[in-house]
Fold these 3 entries.
Entry 1:
Amino acid sequence: MALTAVWWWPDRWLKSSAFLTMTLEEQGAYRNILDALWLRGGELPADERILAKACGDAARWPEVRAKVLRYLVKVGNTYRNDTLDEVLRESTRRATAQRAYRDRKKNGQDHA
């Protein structure tokens, strides 16, 4: 199931250590990486070319890399983000439940 929309909590972001310690450029690169993670089901290959492209500016990747990777977790040959993984799991759970509800309604199995 493809999830194309993501939950975002501005209050959580504005209080996060990523927001508070990163420059605007680093924040943008990090947010772009989070979007790429979301669209790829929560993981990106641990490949510098892919990460550089995903950050939004491959030429600036060497300068923002260390700060951005501080907020990612390397798992085997991929990078993940713990918070994004939690949101992805919950989003998938809700989407699955909603789809099951719609299917029951469509088939006349829901008598509420």
Note: Helices lie at 10-15, 17-21, 24-39, 48-54, 61-69, 82-106.
Entry 2:
Amino acid sequence: MGAVVECHSGHTYAERPRAFYWDNERLEVENIEIEWRSPEGKHFRVKVKDGSVFELIFKVANHNWQIREM
């Protein structure tokens, strides 16, 4: 099972992440610094309120999210 990410979905799924869970804590996305696509899926480098930066990856092949702390 992948990570839990709350996102805005309009025309397509996962257009804009809004919040995610890290160490059993809900973190709200304050800013999307950059977003890009790769063969793996959609990538978002985001900053949360305390200044921490994370990479959120929506893996298209299995429809799961992965989170990496930067």
Note: The chain has a mean pLDDT of 91.
Entry 3:
Amino acid sequence: MKESNQQTENESSVEMRIVRLDNDKTRRVDGSDRVYDVYFEMEGSAPQSWGTIFEGEWKLLNVAHPDLWQAARVDRSFLIMRCPLDDVVALHLPFLKKAVATTNVKYAQYARVIAKERSAQRLIWERESSAVEAVARLAAL
């Protein structure tokens, strides 16, 4: 049980941020002259649930600008966006940073809820375990 508690504590302190555009991984999409898979390196590796929250936040953030929306996803320590390379700095990077910041806040809230649920489950398990031990002592022959 200790290991899952440590994992929860570590996950609740996750604060992802974009640290750089990875020149080596960023490549033009086959069949396109302008569109690239742009790889932004993240500080650390994002938990899967952080990536799920990010994808939702990214879509919500871009509702107001559907004409500018481009797909973005998280793959371990990379945030990957498929877009015209010329649009990265001026159009997309500010929105990506905002989505990352919002995701950090929502992920911290999510992690706190999960930690409370795990703590409650641990208490139930400890009570049940104590009850079983008491019966086992009484049943000892």
Note: The chain has one domain: 2-139.
